[in-house]
Amino acid sequence: MTQTLQIVSGVDWLKERIEIIEDHTGAMRNIEEAVRSLKRSNTFEKLGGVEGAEFDNAQRGSRCTPGSRISLLAMLLAWANDFRSPHLFWLSGLAGTGKTTVSKTFCSQLNNRGLLGASFFCTLNELDKKDVYLIIPTLARILAEERPKFGDALEKILESDRACRNPTKMDLNEQYTKLILQPAERTFAADELLVLGVDALDECENKDAVRLFIAAILSQKPTIPLKFFLTSRPEISLRESFGTSTHHRWLRLHDIEASIVKADILLYLNHQFKCISRVYNHYRAKANWPPPEIQTIADVSGALFIIAATMVAYIATYSGNSLKRFQELGQPSANVQLSGIETLYSTILAEAFKDLDQEEADMIHSCLSLLVTAQRPVSVSDYAKLLRTDTSTIREAFKSLHSVVQIPDEGCDDALILIFHASFVDHLTSEKHHGKEWAIDRIAAHATTAEACFAVMDSMLCFGISGAETSYQSNDNQPKPLELASGLAYACTSWGDHVLYAGVTELFQQRMLEFVKTRKVLYWLEALSVLKNVKYAYNTLWAISQELTSTELGSLLNNIGDFVHNFQPAISHSAPHLYLSALPFYAAAGQPMQALLAFPSVPIIHHNLAHRQEVLKLQTKDVPLSVAFSPEGKYIVSGMRDHTIQLWNAQTGQPALEPIQGHTHFIVSVAFSPDGKYIVSGSDDSTIRLWDAQTGQPALETIEGQSVTSVAFSPDGKCIVSGSHDKTIRLWNTQTGQPVLEPIEGHTDSVRSVSFSPDGKYLVSGSEDKTIRLWDAQTGQPALKPMEGHTDLVTTVAISPDGKYIISGSLDNTIRLWDAQTGQPALESIEGQSVTSVAFSPDGKRIVSGSHGITIGLWDAQTGQYIVSGSYDKTIRLWDAQTRQSVLEPIESHTDSVRSAAFSPDGKYIVSGSHDKTIRLWDAQTGKPVLEPIEGHTDLVRSVSFSPDGKYLVSGSDDKTIRLWDAQTGQPALKPIEEQTGSVASVAFSPDGKYIVSGSYDKTIRLWNTQTGQSVLEPLEGHTYPVVSVGFSSDGKYIVSGSHDDTIRLWDAQTGQPVLEPIEVHSVTSAAFSPDGKYIVSGSYDKTIRLWDAQTGQPALKPIKGHTGLVESVAFSPDGKYIISGSHDKTIRLWDAQTGQAASEPIEGHTSWVRFVAFSPDGKYIVSGSHDKSIRLWDAQPGQPALEPMEGHTAAFSSDDKHIIPYSKDKAFQGWNIYQPQLAYQDLLFLHDYPTTALALDNEGWIKNSSGNLLLWIPPHFRDGLFLPRVCQIIGGDFEITKVELTNALYHGTNWLNGH
Predict the structure, then answer these.
(1) For strand 1122-1127 and strand 1111-1116, is the pairing parallel, antiparallel, or unpaired?
(2) What is the pTM of this model?
(3) Between 730 and 881, where is the model more confident?
């Protein structure tokens, strides 16, 4: 019995435990579900945050009156329920025919039947609801929320498909495929009907995108019964989009039988007038409902519901006698009957202006002017602010216009004033109403609104207008949310548009000159920062400057636009840093305007300009195959080998847009349209595409063709010419994408290059058939005989700006100039490298060329006298064509083939694209070298070292030689040692200086006599892969070697015999002895540093971990207490040699792999060399800078600490004396004076302290040469040196406002 009770008790205990476990399990499941939900929510945020676009938004108007539109709705439901019906239905109708009402009712009925997937109602009144690129993402998000299985499939696609990283910027065809079709086909059953509704497509602004949207849906028929219901006005762009498609049904509302529409309108009016109590009660008392007036009003409305709705609104307005208005409009003789809505509008406006004094009439006219010109709907309060009155006056002015203008309720002054229908604005601004007291002249109205904007800005803009309380935080993280008064917000983001619409008159020029010459312009930028619309500044200022090209004001606007464009990241992120970061760096960048330099209590930037001919480098992720400037020179576009197009800021070298995607193969040619609004691209995928240069979105459906080699715009922008591998030239209409002519034939091989003449009358083409041909652009007929002379394929052609000459480049290593009138040679051929690209400067005086020889060439177009040549020796040289003597020193920068080159519009710069994955900008006038090289090696230099006495240098190279140099003169001290059969990866002197040890890719270690260069021992063999690191022990008795065969080996330096068994470790990159010879340290591909006992070969410590990239170089400090390591993670780390623990924070500053590290012999300094082509000198303990800049690539110390020797892949090296005069700034405070752990530079360019506070934003082209904490020196690299002085930077954080 006792045992039974114990068992029962045990069971109860077990049940309790199980219940507890189940409770915990349930809690865990809840947590997991919450995490999954949060993760999904974050993923779906990429689909945009459009809210209120669904059919059930009450602001979208009402549904059909019960009993009306019965047959139409029945037909639509029959289409939706029929599996065999087309997957798209287009309902079109004229303005006012009731499309949105029908759409809203139909969506409601579908929803009640479980057939509605999602809906999107477009409207001109809201930015996000007139953007075509937000429609499909929003539909997908709603579907995912309503149907979880669809959401699961969509989530997987968004997370796994790289093309979906930014769904709202995707090609519309890709949007439809990846966001709708693919998840739907994986989720919905074959018998599961679903309809997606999109209303008022015509209200989307980008008409080209609307065409692409329709084409995407028509071209891909779903495999499951998924349907689209679209409505719009029957605009020509939409009618053409549907064209001859057989994959859709359509109905025009205005074609429905008049009697049916009239009956529906009659039903609608009957219902609406019943709701006007005074009218309904009056006639019901007489038992006379419906009265005949309703029939009359229905007759006047015709087939337009908008007229009926407007008349109802006019009669119902509270400010008038509704019964009297009903009876007047219901009379058969009423004027409104004769001209429909036009007369109705005139009647309403006449009534509004009746019996007013002039002041009242002027206020209504001012309100209507603002209503017509406003760039977006504004609130009652904004009307009051802009018109310098109060809200009650605004409401009074609009009180008689409620039937045509939607006025917010009393007490809702922050709500927007809206028009019911766009036709009202057309009526107000129609020329036929000129002279009427209510008529609006658009130009005059814009001028008035522009002046109102200036007045608001004058009265409200001030220092600190942003409301930012601290400079340490971004705008989004301020203690209190930042907000501007809505009236000021409108003025700041619209004044420029109004000025442009009104015309840049002398009055406005004077107004703007006063604005930009004072601090007001800075306060305006501060306001735009809060509004997240800084780009409005440079787009507006540049646009106005184009209208004032030769004036002082035009130049000022252009320069300020450049300033904002270049410093947009800082200004947009944190408003205080307009003053604290943007202005100081702007002051250091050139000759800034005084208006932008009025804040003294900010950092001072000491920026040493490098003496180089390269103006800008654009770092790309892949090879640019084609480059072009925008017409105004603000942007550069590049066509890439990775199938993308990249737009760049030509001032800063930073991307201006996300990469433009759509092509599926190399992009071989890109060009801007003459007005700069569009980019055309030609690709090896056999397509030509047109893109909006502002958004990167497609502007036209893809033009299909053969494999495209070259594209160009006509001077008027109406046509695109393309050349192709199919031997033809084709001309395309930029509006429709349709061919303008039949293919132009004549070449007998691929057409490699095409271009228009400046007047647009001719086309020039170059071909692989070795000829150049000129064609009549109107007829496609030859204009001249083929131009022959090249002996290899013609790769590039261009016509001079005056149309007199044709230039051609060929793989026969020549450039030729031809007379465009006769086709005869105009100059002797210019000999050069294999030419891939040529272009004329805007003045026609010079020619730029790019070649396979890693060059950019510059030529005198009249004489050919000055020639720039390039070679695989990685230099560019300028020669006199008469004497063949060098005019300038070699220009060294590109490290691989130049594929394309072009002039900027002003002719000052040349842009080039190269196989070294960079785009570079060059000064076309100069060509000064950065360094004088020590020459001798014929391939890259991998290793250098000083002799112990500092008198000699030894170097090892991929040219398989070892060379000994006099360290004082740079002259060879011995003949090259040439016995190696592979690249020499590592060299080192013995402690007594008598021997050199070398490690080679031929898998051997060799010992050499420094006096004779002769081999001392037979090659030391044993490694099975390249030997990448060698060194002597401190007593000279042993040699250590590291190899890619995953071993470290120890050798007797006297006999060459192995001393230990190989030490096995993952692929070794570097190995070195400790100063006392007891230990060996190694670096490896496995990201670790390892310490070994040199006597036993056993590990002395556990692997030292910390780097996140392979460890390229390791070394001991002279006292043996520390190990230094350099890694591909761009950092240098210091470790305690006894414990393996980190001895300091990672040392950061290099912008690429750290290839080499070493201590100075006294242990005070660390030198590092990097793949970023710089050498940096660091204080081994945080301290002051040690010396002024030196230039080189990678380096080692001399034994006396007095010299550093850099070595590099450019086959040249040079030594510098590191003892320099004391710095002139010794009593000043600099950024690099701070402790290492105090500050850090993040990936966005922000200097932050340990608390994450924003201290300073560093522009991209200042970052590489920036002195950060612990940096003693930066040597070499393609950048300029920058030091940040903080002596006067007194006001920051919460005190930033005191710096005014």
Answers:
(1) antiparallel
(2) 0.55
(3) 730
